[in-house]
Amino acid sequence: MDLNKLLKAMLVALPIMAISACSSTSESETDASGSMSGTSGTEYGTGGVETGGVAPVLSPAEQQRLKLQELRREHIIYFDFDRSEVQTEFAEILEAHGTYLVEHPNVRVLIEGHADERGTPEYNIALGERRAKSVAKYLQGMGVQPSQMSIVSYGEEKPLDMSRTDEGFGKNRRAVLVY
């Protein structure tokens, strides 16, 4: 086809496209995505510009950074009754905190150890300290400098849950990372 004929055909089609864009349609003629049902998209050409709805493509490094940032929002590590070992379910959270601390050697963290009210106050202070030290040791194993970490034990003195139920006791057996 001659270039001039193609241009004339396009100029003739433009007013038709403008008129069709202003026409109203019933709900039955429009599908859920807002496009006309029954049209193939080739009736008026396919050179239109689509906008919106495109999510940015993140690099793997950026995806990992966002994942670690989200994991760092969690700052409580829970423990089993009368135990001070870090459970594997909290490894990702501690790894996120450890990575952040290694990358930011000027940042310090306070690790608070807590216990539920069962046991003597002296025992619970010692248990809270073992829990805080366990978290510190885990982070140190990742390369966090001991000078970046401080520990304190509150034992049973600062409960999160006062309900005296098994679930409440579970919430009180914890170590908390405070920046």
From TrEMBL:
Sorted UniProt keywords: Cell cycle, Cell division, Cell outer membrane, Lipoprotein, Membrane, Palmitate, Signal
GO CC terms, sorted: cell outer membrane
Region (Disordered): 26-56
Biological process per Gene Ontology, one example term: cell division
Membrane topology: Lipid-anchor
Every OmpA-like domain range: 66-179
Localization, UniProt: Cell outer membrane
Pfam assignment, any one: OmpA
Oligomer status and interactors: The Tol-Pal system is composed of five core proteins: the inner membrane proteins TolA, TolQ and TolR, the periplasmic protein TolB and the outer membrane protein Pal. They form a network linking the inner and outer membranes and the peptidoglycan layer.
This protein's name: Peptidoglycan-associated lipoprotein
Lineage: Bacteria, Pseudomonadati, Pseudomonadota, Gammaproteobacteria, Alteromonadales
